[in-house]
């Protein structure tokens, strides 16, 4: 049987991906067209060029658009909703910038922010050591996990404000008490994430180590610890923000020693200094965001070459 081919007349169709449209190509005169009695039309759908989620427009345009909306609502409430006599309750953003961030109190706010950062990082470091050791102990034996993990949950569920009197009695009302509050708040994310990472090892790899008669320390060092690094860094990112919150909470209740940003926030509130109050809140928020971003960058440097969370979706 002889093969029959149909030749197309006219220019070929290109798919440049610009639009989502249908282009038809007509089959020219030939044996197939003559037997069919008409020209065959074959629709070709051009692919749509989608906007990448990693593009600069999505990465920076979205947050900037939200910021513009928030500032617009802020101005609207300040000038259209509040009376001029009550405008001090919500000063306009430019007033916060000029009178707060660039006002005479900025030097004291920066110094207080440095003290709060010292307390938060010290508490985070202690929580990291305790949390990792705690998680490793629970990952080695099932009975250890069942015995110790409920207390980690209880520690997370206890209101910090209920422990403030005890913390003051035990550690005083200075630097040590503030660090202890940070440890209590930041401990659970590190424990839970590290334990999850240690237990998320591929069972096939675990059996492979067993076949080679690897010791428990070897399995922990060469298999479980590398597998737990992504989850550990995620826990650190969460705990870093919580440690900043703990440092500010400690400032509110342990008002002794050198003041942190929490003490300044309470002072500005008592004096009705709204621009300085909003400026100190913004600085405290920026501290938490900065610590979160630093640990995110550290996570990408350590595990980013071999672990991509997008690939796990």
Question: Widest sheet: strand order?
Answer: 1-2
Shape: globular
The major β-sheet equals: 2 strands, antiparallel
CATH-defined architecture of the domain at 91-303: Orthogonal Bundle
Count of distinct strands = 2
Layout of SSEs?
Blueprint: E1 22-26, H1 31-36, E2 41-45, H2 56-81, H3 93-101, H4 106-140, H5 142-157, H6 160-171, H7 175-199, H8 203-211, H9 216-253, H10 261-270, H11 274-303
Antiparallel strand pairs: 1-2
Helix pairs in contact: 3-11, 4-5, 4-7, 4-9, 4-10, 4-11, 5-7, 6-7, 7-9, 9-10, 9-11, 10-11
Can you put this structure into words, describing what you see?
The chain is mainly alpha-helical and 313 residues long. The protein has a domain at 91-303: MetI-like (MetI-like fold, Orthogonal Bundle), CATH 1.10.3720.10. 69% of the residues lie in helices and 3% in strands. It is built from eleven helices and two strands; from the N terminus they run βαβαααααααααα. Strands 1-2 form a two-stranded antiparallel ribbon. The longest helix has 38 residues, at 216-253. Residues 1-51 have low confidence and may be disordered.
């Amino acid at each position: 049987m002889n093969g029959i081919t149909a030749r197309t007349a006219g220019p070929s169709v290109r798919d440049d991906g610009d639009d989502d449209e249908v282009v038809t190509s007509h089959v020219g005169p030939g044996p197939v067209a003559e037997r069919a009695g008409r020209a065959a039309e074959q629709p070709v759908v051009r692919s749509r060029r989608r906007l990448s989620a990693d593009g600069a427009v999505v990465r920076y345009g979205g947050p900037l658009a939200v910021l513009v909306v928030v500032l617009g609502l802020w101005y609207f409430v300040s000038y259209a909703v509040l009376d001029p006599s009550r405008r001090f309750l919500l000063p306009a953003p430019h007033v916060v910038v000029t009178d707060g961030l660039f006002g005479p109190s900025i030097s004291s706010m920066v110094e207080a922010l440095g003290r709060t950062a010292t307390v938060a990082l010290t508490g985070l470091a202690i929580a990291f050591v305790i949390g990792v050791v705690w998680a490793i102990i629970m990952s080695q034996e099932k009975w250890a996990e069942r015995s110790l993990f409920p207390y980690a949950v209880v520690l997370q569920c206890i209101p910090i404000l209920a422990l403030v009197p005890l913390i003051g009695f035990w550690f005083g009302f200075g630097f040590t008490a503030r660090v202890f509050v940070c440890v209590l708040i930041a401990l659970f994310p590190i424990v839970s994430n590290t334990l999850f990472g240690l237990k998320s090892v591929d069972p096939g790899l675990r059996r492979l180590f067993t076949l080679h008669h690897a010791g428990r320390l070897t399995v922990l060092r060469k298999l479980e610890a590398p597998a737990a690094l992504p989850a550990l860094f995620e826990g650190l990112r969460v705990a870093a923000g919580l440690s900043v919150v703990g440092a500010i909470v400690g400032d509110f209740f342990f008002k002794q020693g050198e003041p942190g940003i929490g003490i300044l926030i309470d002072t500005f509130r008592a004096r009705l200094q709204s621009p300085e109050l909003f400026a100190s809140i913004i600085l405290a928020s920026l501290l938490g965001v900065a610590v979160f971003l630093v640990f995110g960058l550290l996570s990408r440097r350590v595990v980013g070459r071999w672990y991509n969370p997008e690939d796990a979706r």
